[in-house]
Amino acid sequence: MSLTLRRITFFVENLPAATSYYSDALGMKGTDIRNGWSAYKVSGKFEIAFHKGKGKKPRLEFITTDDLATVRKRMNNDGAKLRPIEKVSENIFRCRGKDPERNSIEIYQSYK
Fold first, then answer.
1. What φ, ψ does residue 66 adopt, rounded to 5°?
2. CA torsion sign, 103 to 6 to 34 to 95?
3. Tens-digit pLDDT profile for residues 27-49
4. Is a pLDDT exceeding 70 seen at residue 111?
């Protein structure tokens, strides 16, 4: 099974403060700053992001080049609880849910 970690999203109560800290104090370059969201490229295509929200665990987002249904089935067999696959846009599909420790995870597959 091939999975690549694409993004870790942290949920924060004070998004402007988090954005300021990572941009100003640490000098990170924002790649996607908008209402309720800020993202920073870390390395290659990997980024960390901050989303306005309280009390949620971080979300791990993966990309797979394998068949998404097969990946979902295998992960669920190994203890994850991934919901059915949904279409995000014309060529992008994902499944979302929780890993065995109840961390939020999303797995994306893009068909070109």
1. -85, 170
2. negative
3. 888 888 888 899 998 888 899 99
4. no
Cα Rg of the chain, angstroms: 15
Phi, psi of 15 (to 5 degrees): -60, -45
Positive or negative, the Cα torsion across 18, 108, 66, 1? Answer: positive
* Token output for 28: 């990170």
Q: Quote the pTM value.
A: 0.82
* Residue 68: count of CB within 10 angstroms of its CB: 19
Q: How far apart are CA 112 and CA 109, in angstroms?
A: 10
Q: Which of 63, 62, 32 is nearest to 49 (CA)?
A: 32
Give the torsion through C-alpha atoms of 100, 101, 104, 105, to 10 deg. Answer: -40
CB atoms closer than 10 angstroms to residue 4 = 13
Mean pLDDT for the chain overall: 90
Sorted by sequence, the CB contacts under 8 Å of residue 110 that are 6+ apart come out as: 63, 91, 92, 93
State which amino acid sits at residue 66. Answer: D
Token pair in block for residue 4: 């690549």
